[in-house]
Write the structure tokens for this entry.
Amino acid sequence: MGAGDPLCVLLLPRAPEDFILRDQAEDLLRAPGVVAVGPPRVPYGAIARLPGPVRAFVAAAAARAIRRRLPAGEPRAVAIFHPVQLAVARALAAGELWYGRWDRYERAYEASPRRRARLQRLHDEAAREAALTFVASDELARLEREAGREAALVPLAADAFPAPDPGAAVVAVSLGHLGWRTDWALLRAVSEAMPELVLLLVGAWHDAECAGDPDYAACRAAPNLLWLGARSDEEAARLILCADVGIVPFRREPFNDAGLPYRILKYARLGRRTVAPDLAGVRTWSRAVDTASDAGAFVTALRAAGGRRAALDGELRLWALEQTAARQNAPLWERLRALGIADDG
């Protein structure tokens, strides 16, 4: 970019990975003239609490530091996402102010009456000075209209939040001890072969019993294995209700082969069948058990159990997937194009 090219500077109130509007900020950053800057050395909230002349001095210093971090170009717009950022935005002296509001900051639970009054004042000042105010909800837009101001509706987006296909998901539950008896190689193979699997591991895990086992380490890191720890019977019963099927992931060895895992009956009391390795003892309750000779057979049995829980609201899912950052940011893109910061492409 050249020295005269227009910029839109997004003043992020938090580090990018902690910013609630991260997806929408990343969408806007696709425009070559949009840049994001993290919080200054002195926090925005601390700057806002300073007395007037001191606040202006510290804000000016923060603005100079921000300008040194910017690429070549002239800030034509600066966006803030909290009213405490107003002093620094003013000091940047950009062509226009954008003010994003996704919450009623001035009504924060932890804010004292004095702080609430200060935030209300800063909000009113930011909203009056902003060339563009954008809000996350219809109610926030209504409040701006009530105050005699207009705001663009820019709802939230969750592009980066995982969205596994709920129609294909298989939810299994394992209840009990997670240590020596568990066949971690089996669970690893199943979890890797079934990305659609969600396995609820209900019970205490024992790192010392599995130290140095690479399959255990892989299972600890697998995103589709959810380690829920020890739970009361009341909690465990309700977690089983969330699952399609129960499992007994025991090693095939003499200690396990003859036993009768109690969890089979517990799953069955909640109407869930059990998938287990081909252990001699589990045949006692063959009415409730499907045995699997290896990881492939285990996967087949689990997939056959998929869908034995609440029916999917497919239309709601499709609607949610359509609420992308690019769609929600449409008013901001329109403004970027009007300012010459982004082209029509």
